[in-house]
Amino acid sequence: MAVAIGIARETAPGERRVALTPETCKKFIAAGADVRIERDAGMRAGFPDSAYADAGARIVDDADAAVGDADIALCVQPPSPERIARLKSGGVLIGILQPQADAARGDAIVARQLVAFPLERLPRTTRAQAMDVLSSQAGMAGYKAVLIAAQLAPRFFPMLTTAAGTIRPSRVLIVGAGVAGLQAIATAKRLGAQVEGFDVRPETREQIESLGGKFLDLGVSAAGEGGYARQLTDEERAEQQRRLAEHLKLVDVVVCTAAVPGRPAPKIVTAAMVDGMKPGSVIVDLAAETGGNCERTQPGETIEAGGVIVAGPLNLASMGALHASEMYARNVYNFASLLLKDGALAFDWNDELLARSVWPERAPA
């Protein structure tokens, strides 16, 4: 019997993405799977039911029909505990699941004996890059964050020479040079701004400069393992903040993107720094979902503090739902294909990608 793959409509507030596109649907069917998708699951991302039907999927009327007895359920945001309780016992669940962030969700996965693959747990290896949902979605988030900043800023980004005089380009600082930050640097540069990038990892200098940005060196290095930053000491943080506070007085726009996986976002821009910025300056805090890099950030809100606009948008990747879904769905297909062998469901626990991402964790054989 063919492996049944199910996709239900996302129910998280504001979520427009979908874990399957017509493109990846064709690939799953070519691999011998039976694909079922809830009606209108892809509509908000720009994929009508007719496109899925043409790709060979079965369109079903509700979530239970789509994923209730599916061997593999695909999702973007984690399903509710109630939805998890109705999944097939012993089935596979793949998505950005964050099981340890919600005890009820984690308990529901265990109680249903699901083989869950939270894709945020994938190791940062070359082979895993094609499955790296965090990177693909961070790229869209960085792009959208700069567009929000440009919309909120009371100034042009590029230099303009007009009959009314010359307009100087905006000075834009991108805090954090991960995937989101690098995309933000590239986007701000395309818009004509004078762009700087700041990251405590010195190895990011070359990446920032390759995109046309200037590396902001505050004299503090926090190079860590696996391409992530380590936590700064109290002394290092104090020196970093002193130098950053002085620099922010000259900046027009700040886009914050710094994050440490599994931890609250580091506080980099203090309330005192915001108070020292020029009126009309803008801060867009992409890290708002994990508490924000700015002390003034209110997740999901755009506020004004002493003439400085501080925005804390949530789920930015969903704002670019079509391309974000295309990238996410390809990531998911590349991972799920590891489970499909000759049209049947199979687990190779010697495969590092499966063994290190499965939840609950399994003892080595």
Mean pLDDT: 94
Through-space gap between termini: 28 Å
The overall strand count is: 17
Please tell me how large the radius of gyration is.
Answer: 22 Å
The major beta sheet can be summarized as: 7 strands, mixed
Share of helical residues: 25-40%
CATH architecture designation of the largest domain: 3-Layer(aba) Sandwich
The CATH superfamily of the largest domain is known as NAD(P)-binding Rossmann-like Domain
Low-confidence stretches: none
Element-level helix/strand string: EHEHEHEHEHEHEEEHEHEHEHEEEHEEH
Descriptive notes:
The protein has 365 residues and is of the alpha/beta class. Helices cover 32% and strands 17% of the residues. The chain contains twelve helices and 17 strands. β1 (4-7), α1 (22-30) and β2 (34-38) form a beta-alpha-beta unit. α1 packs parallel to α2.
Question: What's the SSE blueprint?
Answer:
Elements: E1 4-7, H1 22-30, E2 34-38, H2 49-55, E3 58-60, H3 63-67, E4 72-74, H4 81-84, E5 92-95, H5 103-111, E6 115-118, H6 133-152, E7 160-162, E8 165-167, E9 171-175, H7 179-190, E10 194-198, H8 205-210, E11 214-215, H9 234-248, E12 253-256, H10 271-276, E13 282-285, E14 302-305, E15 308-311, H11 321-336, E16 340-341, E17 344-345, H12 352-357
Parallel strand pairs: 1-2, 1-4, 2-3, 4-5, 5-6, 9-10, 9-12, 10-11, 12-13, 13-15
Antiparallel strand pairs: 7-8, 14-15, 16-17
Helix pairs in contact: 1-2, 1-11, 6-7, 6-11
Give a brief rundown of this model.
This protein has 365 residues and is of the alpha/beta class. It has helices at 22-30, 49-55, 63-67, 81-84, 103-111, 133-152, 179-190, 205-210, 234-248, 271-276, 321-336, 352-357; strands at residues 4-7, 34-38, 58-60, 72-74, 92-95, 115-118, 160-162, 165-167, 171-175, 194-198, 214-215, 253-256, 282-285, 302-305, 308-311, 340-341, 344-345. The protein is elongated and about 70 Å long.
